[in-house]
Write a structure and sequence with these properties.
With 138 residues, the chain is mostly helical. It has one domain (2-130). Helices cover 70% and strands 0% of the residues. The chain has helices at residues 2-32, 38-45, 53-69, 73-91, 104-119, 126-130. α1 runs antiparallel to α3 (53-69), α1 (2-32) crosses α5 (104-119) and α3 runs antiparallel to α4. The longest helix has 31 residues, at 2-32.
Length: 138
């Protein structure tokens, strides 16, 4: 009986927190690299204006931070899913799952972001503690 309660409650909540935290840290670190001036040359080679450097970087860093804390988790995961779809199709051209221009890691991040959209933040989150944020957003 005690094992079922632990598995059903605490373990699930810790798992959601762990998944949110790992994905958040990955996106924060990846987004911080986009503040580098060299990233302007890369996005220019894709046909995007150089002014998009800051919005693209912030589109990964800010949702990553929010995801770690469990605030606006579904909204953040939705934004990160859009970023990953752009990375898969625009940046890498969805050419290979493995090898050169591989999209395997991008697909994993997209799948986890979609999982977070469906599952939500879990009970170990600021959104759950506050309870004033509408449920469909957190």
């Amino acid at each position: 009986m005690a094992t079922a309660e632990i598995n059903g409650g605490i373990l699930k909540d810790v798992t959601f927190m762990g998944i949110r935290s790992v994905v958040g840290v990955i996106f924060i670190l990846h987004g911080m690299g986009k503040f580098n001036p060299g990233f302007v040359n890369f996005i220019s080679s894709l046909g995007l204006p150089p002014e998009m450097q800051i919005p693209i970087a912030l589109a990964e860093v800010v949702p990553g931070i929010l995801m770690i804390f469990g605030i606006f988790t579904r909204f953040s995961a939705s934004l990160l899913s859009i970023v990953m779809i752009g990375a898969i199709f625009l940046v890498k051209g969805a050419q290979n799952i493995t090898g050169e221009k591989a999209v395997e890691f991008d697909l994993i991040l997209l799948a986890v972001s979609l999982l977070i959209i469906v599952a939500g933040p879990g009970r170990i989150s600021i959104a759950h503690a506050i309870k004033k944020i509408p449920r469909f957003i957190h």
